[in-house]
């Protein structure tokens, strides 16, 4: 499944459509500690977190995750959205907790 295919499912709210729409998604990755995510987030993963700030975007760019899903109804501020646009990072939002959101991604990838 690509980032574009995930967006097209309309399961999650689109916050910003990035530039990597054809990137293949490898798996879900859950982490709210940025330093851990920086060292362990796999390339191509959907990173599910509640951290909605500029530092999250920096870690996403460093790790080359496919996209970020902000869980639990968390939304980024306008400055963070503008930075996501500038950096071409896809950001989605979900109302569900981190685990349930990650499980949805896992099920989509393994259907």
Q: Any idea what the radius of gyration is?
A: 12 Å
Beta-strand content: 15-25%
Number of helices: 5
Q: In terms of per-residue confidence, which ranges show pLDDT below 50 for 5 or more consecutive residues?
A: none
Q: What number is the mean pLDDT?
A: 97
Per DSSP E runs of 2 or more residues, the count of β-strands stands at 5
Using the coordinates above, name the CATH class: Alpha Beta
Query: What's the number of structural domains?
Result: 1
Protein name: DRTGG domain-containing protein
InterPro entries: Ser_kin/Pase_Hpr-like_N_sf
Organism: Anaerocolumna jejuensis DSM 15929
Describe the model:
By secondary structure, this protein is α/β, with parallel strands linked by helices. The chain has a single domain, classed as HprK N-terminal domain-like (Udp-n-acetylmuramoylalanyl-d-glutamate--2,6- Diaminopimelate Ligase, Chain: A, domain 1). It has five helices and five strands, in the order αββαβαβαβα. It has helices spanning 3-8, 34-40, 54-63, 78-87, 98-109, and strands spanning 13-16, 28-30, 46-49, 67-70, 91-93. The chain has a five-stranded mixed beta sheet. Helix 2 packs parallel to helix 3. The longest helix is centred in the last third of the chain and has 12 residues, at 98-109. This is DRTGG domain-containing protein. InterPro entries: Ser_kin/Pase_Hpr-like_N_sf.
